Automatic annotation (TrEMBL):
Biased amino acid composition, Low complexity: 28-73
Signal peptide from the UniProt entry: 1-23
Keyword set includes Disulfide bond: no
Lineage: Bacteria, Bacillati, Actinomycetota, Actinomycetes, Micrococcales
Keywords, ordered alphabetically: Signal
Protein name: FMN-binding protein
Length: 171
C-alpha cells in the first residue's frame, strides 16, 4: 500500500512539473517581442519616390526623409511594404511602414489590408502593441514573434520587414 502511495505521489509530482514546463513554454521567450502600446498609426506619410518589389503579392515603396544616408547599413527614411501570412481563415495581408534613422526604427505604422473578422481582431491587438515593441531598436535586431497576443500577424510583419530592409539597404 505504501508503494502505491509513493508511486501516485511521484506521478502527481511529475505531472505537476510537466504542467509547469508547458506553461513556461507558452510564456514569452528571449526571442519573442511583446508589447502593449500604440502603433503610431495616426497618419500616412506621403511618398515622393518608390521602389517596386518583384513579388506579385506585395509592393514596397520608399520615401527618403532626407538627402543624407545614415552612418550604417540602411538609408534614413520611411519605407513601406505589404506582408502576407496564412491564418485559419485564409491568406491575410498587412501594410507595414517603418521610419528608419541611423539603422534604428523611429516609427512604425501597421494597417490591415485584407483580413477576415477573426484575423482583423488579432491584427488590431498587434497594431496596438508593435510600436512599443520595436521603436528604438536596431532594424537588424528585430525578431518579432508575438505581440499583444497575436502570433500569426508577426509572420506578415516579418515578410514586410524583409522587403523593407532590402529597399532601405545602402547601395
Amino acid at each position: 500500500m505504501l508503494s502505491a502511495a509513493r508511486s501516485r505521489t511521484a506521478l502527481l509530482a511529475l505531472t505537476g512539473a510537466s504542467f509547469v514546463a508547458l506553461l513556461a513554454g507558452c510564456s514569452s521567450t528571449s526571442g519573442s517581442t511583446q508589447g502593449a502600446g500604440s502603433s503610431g498609426s495616426s497618419g500616412d506619410s506621403s511618398s515622393s519616390g518608390s521602389a517596386s518589389s518583384p513579388s506579385s503579392s506585395a509592393s514596397s515603396s520608399a520615401t527618403d526623409a532626407g538627402s543624407s544616408s545614415g552612418s550604417g547599413t540602411y538609408k534614413n527614411g520611411t519605407f513601406s511594404s505589404n506582408g502576407s501570412y496564412s491564418s485559419p481563415g485564409g491568406q491575410e495581408t498587412i501594410n507595414v511602414s517603418l521610419t528608419i534613422a541611423d539603422d534604428s526604427v523611429k516609427a512604425v505604422t501597421v494597417k490591415t489590408v485584407k483580413a477576415d473578422p477573426t484575423a482583423q481582431q488579432y491584427e488590431q491587438q498587434f497594431i496596438g502593441g508593435i510600436s512599443s515593441a520595436i521603436v528604438g531598436k536596431k532594424i537588424d535586431d528585430l525578431n518579432v514573434t508575438n505581440v499583444a497576443g497575436s502570433s500569426l500577424t508577426s509572420q506578415g510583419f516579418n515578410a514586410a520587414l524583409t522587403k523593407i530592409k532590402a529597399a532601405a539597404k545602402d547601395a
